[in-house]
TrEMBL record, chain A:
SUPFAM superfamilies attached to this UniProt entry: C-terminal domain of transcriptional repressors
GO MF term (any one): transition metal ion binding
Domain of life of the native organism: Archaea
Pfam families: FeoA
Entry keywords, A to Z: Iron
Signal peptide per UniProt: none
Domain Ferrous iron transporter FeoA-like intervals: 7-79
Protein species of origin: Methanolobus vulcani
Protein name: Ferrous iron transport protein A
Automatic annotation (TrEMBL), chain B:
UniProt source species: Methanolobus vulcani
Record's protein name: Ferrous iron transport protein B
This protein's UniProt keywords: Cell inner membrane, Cell membrane, GTP-binding, Ion transport, Iron, Iron transport, Magnesium, Membrane, Metal-binding, Nucleotide-binding, Transmembrane, Transmembrane helix, Transport
Transmembrane segments: 284-309, 329-349, 354-371, 391-411, 418-439, 451-470, 512-533, 562-585, 597-617, 637-657
CDD domains (alphabetical): FeoB (cd01879)
Length: 80, 665
């Protein structure tokens, strides 16, 4: 069930899915994230954290994309 | 017979099998170099097929063609400025959606595109279905299936290349960005068109879109144009971030509308790669497995390299002696024998290490594990002001600093890369071990192992502190964000790894070769003149130089002999040992040398400790200096590396020596 509660990507737990609502990352990272498919409306799932806890391994558009919590905090989502 | 010429360029996302396809196409007929002015690798090769002479250029792998990295700028400038007849995009059939994003950008560039659907075996095994005809129709480009790792579909691809070259019909395909953005695009296009001196190779629509997306590289390209100010007025009137997001959105939207028609994906069941990842990046197992793999890689490197190193050593010694005894006059015999062959041989000894390290690096990369290594180590690296991708280059440094610095190429961010290059020389390489073995063995007896281990730790600590210092001074800023694909695990192709090893090893010999040769000859001249003195003795220039720098090194506990040995060590650090042998009249008998060192009242355990630390840290050997120059493309940074090393070494050795004296040793 979709719950209309906006949070940030870093709060996702392994196995949980969400839909991206806004990418607030600044600078060149923003560009790169968009090129890699992080655009509003896209479904994203947290696969796992790295062994030391950061970065995170997400599944997006059928492939694995890894980013740090620092960036994940600036990406807004609705949990699915 | 000269065939008709066709020029094709390969593009595609990283890890789609582009290199494998390039190797399958060109075989051994390839050439590796650099793109002018940048350190991005340029590979080109040739194929003769039917009546055609086809030139293939392997562009850097990119996800996009914005100005995010040098790779992307190189790729798009090539496509626009060199106008290859056909641009081939290699696409990973098992990851179609994201791959098509680059396709939308290639179309905007107005190039003649052909799509290679690679990794068809994986997509099929998984049960995905891709409808080729539908895809060709929707994208208005030919689509060819290949399995590059098995050389399947190569002839088919070449046939289609020729066919497309002969028809020469261009079907443009454009993405609409919605009324608001389209209006702006038109507005900018109109203004740009007024400039009659403009570079007509660049499509107006493309420039306009890039400007709306805030592309600084394109902005610079038109900065001399008389209409620049007017264009900027339009750009400044919009909300850049909003437009940027909207344009990326629209591209993915366009993909989403065509994608379901050309492909049905099998249910999202767990792939083999996911299962491997459950183990290899597991919370508890991930790090132990990583460490075990790295340790295994080192064992393998040394096991394989040792016999080759012994052979090179024997051969160069024999050859030097042979030349010395058969050449006339004597100075020439000495120059060629002692100087060139001896010196170059000392550096060549490390070539097997370098080759094997490159081979293993390529296996790691091809298997997909290299990305995991960065993923696993990023948190630690980030803490010391570096990027996860810096870890493997630094680790390789323990084998040899040369391939380590070259491996830093995989780091996109210029600053991250520069810092890695500058701190790698502090990582204690194989050539420094003989120095520790001699001195720790001579002066520390049963504690020798601990002392040697301490040297390795010292190197790491200095590297970490240096990274921190550099981050707050000359290379300011935070490490670049970690945004990285973790590609599926794959079986690497041996051929690709062999070619990678050969290309890089050979490039090292070619490029660093000149600097090494110059370095070796200079040292030879210092050791041999004034003519008639014994080679490298007190009366030679190097002996005089040793005396001259002695006051500088005195506070570290070093006399002129050590100074001379350190000067020789600039060729390759293990030469410090050999030249101590000469200076102490012990030849290459290490037992005699040990005894004489102990007998020398100027040499104490404390001096030897200070000397080991100094040898570890002082300027990189000539081979390393050569690659630093090549990889940074700058003498400024090369000199910085040299002087920074010397200063750090001096301070560290001074602290050890004076500290020891104060403590009463
Ligand atoms: N199964 C399969 N593996 C492939 C194929 N093409 C390449 N590979 C493997 O995919 C990995 C990445 O290939 P590489 O050519 O280095 O990719 P690049 O980053 O695009 O240059 C290597 O391990 C190759 O052996 C293919 O068609 N099928
Ligand atoms: Mg490649």
């Amino acid at each position: 069930m979709s719950e209309d509660h906006e949070t940030t990507l870093d709060t996702l737990k392994p196995g949980e899915k969400a839909r991206i609502t806004k990418v607030r990352v600044k600078g060149t990272a923003r560009r790169k994230l968009m090129d890699m498919g992080m655009v509003a409306g896209t479904e994203i799932e947290l696969v796992r954290n790295a062994p030391l806890g950061d970065p995170m391994d997400y599944n997006i558009k059928g492939y694995h994309l890894s980013i740090r919590k620092e960036e994940a905090k600036q990406i807004f989502i609705n949990k699915l | 017979m000269e065939g008709r010429k066709i020029k094709i360029a390969l593009t595609g996302n990283p890890n789609v099998g582009k290199t494998t396809l390039f190797n399958a196409l060109t075989g051994s007929r390839q050439h590796v170099g650099n793109w002018p002015g940048v350190t991005v690798e340029k590979k080109s090769g040739r194929v003769s097929y039917k009546d055609y002479d086809i030139e293939v250029i392997d562009l850097p792998g990119t996800y996009s063609l914005t100005a995010y990295s040098m790779d992307e700028i190189v790729a798009r400038d090539f496509i626009i400025e060199e106008k290859p007849d056909i641009v081939i995009q290699v696409v990973d059939a098992s990851n179609l959606e994201r791959n098509l994003y680059l396709t939308t950008q290639l179309m905007e560039l107005g190039s003649e595109i052909l799509i290679v659907l690679n990794m068809c075996d994986i997509a099929e095994e998984r049960g995905d279905r891709i409808y080729i005809e539908k895809m060709e129709e929707l994208l208005a480009t030919p689509v060819i299936r290949t399995v590059a790792s098995q050389k399947k579909g190569i002839c088919d691809l070449l046939d289609r290349v020729i066919e497309q070259k002969e028809i020469q019909q261009h079907h443009g395909h454009e993405i609409g960005y919605g009324t608001e953005i389209e209006d702006k695009i038109l507005e900018i296009e109109k203004v740009l068109a007024e400039d009659e001196t403009r570079d007509t190779r660049y499509p107006l629509r493309w420039i306009s879109i890039r400007l709306l997306e805030g592309d600084s590289n394109v902005r610079e390209k038109i900065s001399k144009s008389p209409v620049y100010d007017r264009v900027m007025q339009i750009i400044d009137s919009i909300d850049q971030e909003e437009y940027e997001a909207e344009i990326a959105d629209k591209r993915y939207l366009a993909i989403n509308t065509v994608f379901p028609q050309m492909c049905t994906r099998a249910n999202d069941k767990l792939t083999k790669s996911d299962m491997i990842d459950r183990v290899l990046t597991n919370k508890y197992l991930g790090i132990p497995i990583f460490l075990a793999l790295m340790w295994g890689a080192f064992e393998l490197t040394f096991a394989f390299a040792t016999p080759f190193m012994d052979m090179i050593d024997l051969a160069s010694t024999w050859f030097a002696e042979y030349v010395s005894s058969s050449l006339q006059p004597a100075w020439l015999a000495s120059l060629v024998g002692d100087g060139i062959i001896g010196g170059v041989g000392a550096v060549l000894v490390f070539v097997p290490n370098i080759f094997i390290l490159f081979f293993l690096l390529s296996l790691l990369e091809g298997s997909g594990y290299l990305a995991r290594a960065a993923f696993i180590m990023d948190k630690l690296m980030y803490k010391i002001g570096m990027h996860g991708k810096s870890f493997i280059p630094m680790l390789m440094g323990f084998g040899c600093n040369v391939p380590a610095i070259m491996a830093a190429r995989s780091i996109e961010d210029e600053k991250d890369r520069l810092i890695t290059i500058l701190v790698v020389p502090f990582v204690s390489c194989g050539a420094r071990l003989p120095i520790y073995v001699l001195f720790a063995g001579t002066f520390f007896g049963r504690q020798a192992g601990t002392v040697i281990f301490g040297m390795y730790v010292l190197g790491i600590v200095i590297a970490i502190i240096s990274a921190k210092i550099l981050r707050t001074t000359v290379v300011r800023g935070k490490p670049a964000p970690f945004i990285m694909e973790l590609p599926p695990y794959r079986v690497p192709t041996l051929k690709t790894s062999f070619i990678h090893m050969w290309d890089n090893g050979f490039m090292y010999i070619k490029k660093a070769g000149t600097i090494i040769l110059v370095g070796v000859v200079v040292i030879w001249a210092l050791a041999s003149f004034p003519w008639g003195v014994q080679y490298g003795s007190e009366n030679s220039y190097v002996g005089l130089l040793g005396h001259a720098v002695e006051p500088l090194l005195k506070p570290l506990g070093f006399d002129w002999k050590i100074s001379v040995a350190l000067i020789f060590g600039l060729v390759a650090k293990e030469i410090v040992v050999a030249s101590m042998g000469v200076l102490y009249g012990a030849g290459d008998n290490s037992n005699v040398l040990s005894d004489r060192l102990i007998a020398d009242s100027g040499m104490t355990a404390l001096t030897s400790l200070s000397l080991m630390a100094f040898s570890l840290l002082y300027m990189p050997c000539v081979a390393t200096v050569g690659v630093i120059r090549k990889e940074t493309g700058s003498w400024k940074w090369t000199l910085f590396a040299i002087f920074y090393g010397i200063i750090v070494a001096w301070i560290t050795a001074f602290t050890i020596y004076k500290g020891g004296v104060l403590l009463g040793y």
